[in-house]
Every structure is written in structure tokens, then in C-alpha cells.
Amino acid sequence: MAEMADTQPTGGPSIRPDFSPASQRGIQAETLASLSAGAAGVREAEQSLRLSAKTLNMGDRVFKVVITAFAGLIVLVLAAMIGILLYKSWLALSTFRGAFLTSSTWDPVRNIFGAAPAILGTVYSSLLALLFAVPIGLLVAVFLTEMAPRRLRFGLGFLVELLSAVPSIVYGLWALFVLVPIVRQYVQPPLIDHFGNTPFFSGYPLGLGMFTAALILSIMILPTIVALSRDVMQAVPNSQREAMLALGATRWETTWKVVVPYARSGIIGAVILALGRAVGETMAVQMVIGNTQSISWSLFNNGTTMPATIVNQFTEASGALYLSSIIALALILMVIAVMLNGAARLLIWGMRRGYQV
Asked: Where are the beta strands (DSSP E) in 101-187?
């Protein structure tokens, strides 16, 4: 038996596989070549199909032309708006030059116009509104995303978003008849008594002014901050939360050390979009800000904004220079709004690319 086991078949030469490095490299090269050839064939087939669809399918060609035309129309409309505003405001810009942005004199009788009170009032009221709205909006978004029971998330989110559907004139009337008396009786007197010697809280308890305008603006931009912040927080992968919880972190630590930092770019974009709405808000602010062409740091003094100045004085503009100055305010307002919205969109797009990676 041992002899039979040791014997080799004599019918032909023995065949042994070749495991040398050279043969393995050859096999790998052949495999890669076949794969690349297959991929090239697939690409060629896709290109031929696309080419045939473009050349033979008239519906696709018409559809492409139509959607391209509408996309270009948006750019043309924006450029046309900026161009018309620049043309109509050129008289004021060429007459006053840089003084239009720095002067605080707005005198229609003498035809002297300076936009500094309106510009600074717009920036001041918008930043105050963000100061009031951002902490509340961020906390509400965290609650809806991380803490609220699933049965309440949809209902509460719907109620918050419903605030954005309320017309601004309704906000203005509510602020004029409800918010102004509350501020005049219960908010301004104690602040003036305790901090009236500071430049921010000096004045008289009138109810109207920059403080009330900032309050109503904060209520109006709150749905934007909450909705967008909630969306970007919901887009944070659950693996990030699970990894943090597995390390022994609490829900609070997971939220503020993982979820919020991961969604930081989207939250900043939401804040900038809310700032864009605050900058352009007109009726609600116009009804409670006092509409005075003056510069003051006091929250309780009257002031104005660019939208409020435009809506108040556009119908009263009698001369060409007066009308051109108001249109120049509109041009500045539009440029600021476009820049803010563009910055917000860039941040949100950067956030989405980070998710895809």
C-alpha cells in the first residue's frame, strides 16, 4: 500500500500551479485590463444612449431649452432689478457721493439727504432681533430634535412654522395694541429706573422705539431659525449620537458636543437667512419704531430703518433728487439682502457637501 501511495501517474507530465510573483502580476494586470475595458464599454454605451436621446428625442431637447431659459431668466431679472435701481438712484449717488452713506441729515425741504440713520437703524434693530431670537430658536430646535416625544414633534414643529405664515401687518397691529402697552408699563420703567444713566436705557417710557421693533422682529424671524436649525440637526447621522452615548456621555453632552457642532454651518446659515428677513421687514417695524431720522444708542428712543423710510416717504417724494435718494436706499437694502442670502446659501451648501462626504 505504501508503494502504491508513493507511485506517481505515468500517463503524462504533472501539472503544478505557478504562484511566482511574475505570474501573479500578470494575472492582476489582465484582470485590471478586463475591468477597465468593461467600464469603458459601459461608458461608451451610456454616451451613445445619451447622444441618441439628445439627437432623436425632440421632447428632451425642448425641455432642456425651456428649463435653461427659465434658469437664465432668474439671473436676468435680478440683474435688471439692480440695474434699474442703480439707474434711478444715480442722481442722488452722484450728487452726494460718499456723504449719502455717512451723513445723518435727511431734509427734504433743503434737498439734503443722508442715509446713515436708516442704515444704522436697520443694522441695530436686526442685530437686536438676532440677540433675542437666536438663543430661543436654537433651544426650541434642540428640543424638537433631541428631547421632545415623537408624538409632539410634528405638532409643535407645525405650530412654530405656522408663525411664518402670519402677515407682517398682523404682527404690526398686534405689536401696536398689545406689545407696546406691555413694554410701556412693565418693561421700560424698571429698566430706566435702574439703568437710565447708561446710553442704552436712557429716555422716556413711550412704548415705541428700537426696543419694541427688535422684539417684534425677533418673533417674526423665530420660525426661520427654528425650522432650518431643526432640519440640519435631523440630518446629523445617528451614528454620531450612538458613538457618544456608547462612550458614556449624557443626552445633554451628546447634544452640545456632537449634534450642535456637527450642524454648526447649517445653524449659522439659518441665522443669516433670518437676518436677511429682519433687514427687509417693513410694515411691522414701521408701526412701532417711531420713524425718526436720528441716530441714538438708546433702545427706548425712536428711530427708523431703510424699509420704514421707503414706505413712509415714497409717496411724498416731490422732487427728482428726493425720489432718487429713496430709490438709493432701496438699492442699498437690496444689495445687503442679496449678500446675506448668498452667504447663508453657501454655508448650507457646504453643510450638505459635508454630509455627503
From this structure: 106-107, 112-113
Distance CA 142, CA 211 (A): 27
Kindly state whether residue 79 falls inside one of the protein's structural domains. Answer: no
In a domain? residue 21: no
Q: How many Å apart are CA 329 and CA 92, to the nearest integer?
A: 10
Q: What is the mean pLDDT of the chain?
A: 83
Rounded (5°) CA angle 269-273-279? 140
Quickly state the pLDDT bin for 306 (edges 50, 70, 90): very high
- The domain that holds 135 is classified in CATH as 1.10.3720.10
Residue 22 within any structural domain of the chain: no
Q: What's CA 315's distance to the chain center, in Å?
A: 32
Please count the structural domains in the chain.
Answer: 1
Where are the strands (E) in the chain, listed by range?
106-107, 112-113
Those residues whose C-beta lies under 8 Å from the C-beta of residue 113, and which sit 6 or more positions away, are 92, 96, 100, 103, 105, 106, 107, 321, 322, 325
- What is the domain range of residue 229? 89-356
Q: Enter the pTM of the model.
A: 0.75
